[in-house]
Please model this.
Amino acid sequence: MERESMEFDVVIVGAGPAGLSAACRLMQQAQAASLELMVCVVEKGSEVGAHILSGAVFETTALDELFPDWKNEGAPLNTPVLRDDIYYLTDGQHARKLPQALVPDTMHNDGNYIVSMGNVCRWLAEKAESLGVEIFPGFAASEVFYNEDGSAGGVITGNMGVAEDGSQKDGYMPGMILKARYTIFAEGCRGHLGKQLISKFNLDENTAPQHYAIGFKEIWDIDPALHEPGLVVHTAGWPLTDSTGGGFLYHAENNQVFAGLIVDLNYDNPYLSPFDEFQQMKHHPVFRQYLENGKRVSYGARAIAKGGLNSLPDMTFPGGILIGCNAGTLNFAKIKGNHTAMKSGILAADSIINELKSEIPDPALTNFNQAFKTSWLYSELNSSKNFGAAIHRFGTFWGGVYNTVDQKIFKGKLPFSIKDDRKDYLQLKDKKDATKKVYPKPDGILSFDKLSSVFLSNTNHEENQPCHLKLKDPEIPLKVNLSKYDEPAQRYCPAGVYEIIEEHNTLRFQINAQNCIHCKTCDIKDPSQNIQWVVPEGAGGPNYPNM
Model:
């Protein structure tokens, strides 16, 4: 197929906090060095922010570096954190509030802000465009473009106007080749190109397996009399009796609260439904007191890369670099990844500028590794490297005890590493060895079903297009996963994409790709690793307004 091509100095895949920070920094440094630079950002969402979902309690460390005068430049950080409450939920009705003396230092949020990261990214995009960056929303990077020497040389955007059977519809447009001297991959957690690059260049051969969670979030309008702007609530314990993770409730601006639950994807019970765990959690008095007379206005879910430094792959390779959650820079001890993603983008940009100024640029960006290891980003990830693995190995309570001692007394400097070398998708028990979980029916007040939730995510895909959820072997869902695990895709997917349908006494595996909210959980948790998530036609997926 003959494709048109465009050439840039740097192509960035993904208009999230990492990619946009890299774009801004590139142009800032280029202008300071009097370099002519062409930078473009491709974003698969219909607009910048459409696919952004984050808690989010935001730490400004990287933003302070990027735009020191952000307060006067209109950054949408309007709700400073005023109070932190942490509860251990002992059951569905009772909770114990942790004394401040026992709260790990990483969980204190003084100086942080409750924000919509979708809106922060929209603001960063405006700053990037004002600096001369070209941003192309609605264009999915579907393939890596490789140079003849095997180095990454840019990306190929997805074809538009392809029918489900592979034929070309009216208005068909082949994807373009966006060539670049350097390509920055900032796709977010479990980016499908990042996954390929890690495999191709063996970037993870010296690391522990990456570990993941699924994070849910809902936005609620609540009674102004109950609203406490700046209140941050975190929970552990119930309802997660068969898994680890925790809940949150952030009081944002405009009488809204952000309610959510993070469920680690190393759970072993195939009957567990992360979505239903979240819906059940909202009935606890800690959450119910704020939500029961409110109105749910938005819903979404997204996978989280939480392995930390022990699971961080080599980020550079010939022609490019992985940054942010595409690499796994989240600090799980803080439950924060936005400031670390932004810093990784800043470091990547600085390294690229240094090479572009050199007489003989290094395509492998080896200078990045030294800059990373001498940065506050590395120090922060190093001090929290055992946090997630301790909870995996010792459970929520004893892992929490270890982390409290590690963070409060030793400041994350204990001279050893705790690693979890067990891959998340290999943890499921055989269904005959697992206890079936029965969840309460949603009441339509605090808890809801999947389809009404997906409706609130504004998810949409062009229906007549190839399915973007690829099965390596179409027989595995029924022959292996159903017989051994009661096909857990029916439960781990937060959007009702996967179903087992019985017709004429015959079972079939149905994929409702139209429902997909791009969380990537299926690509991660499928015990047979049979599902491969790839990008659909550009602009498809959720359209989050202010998540």
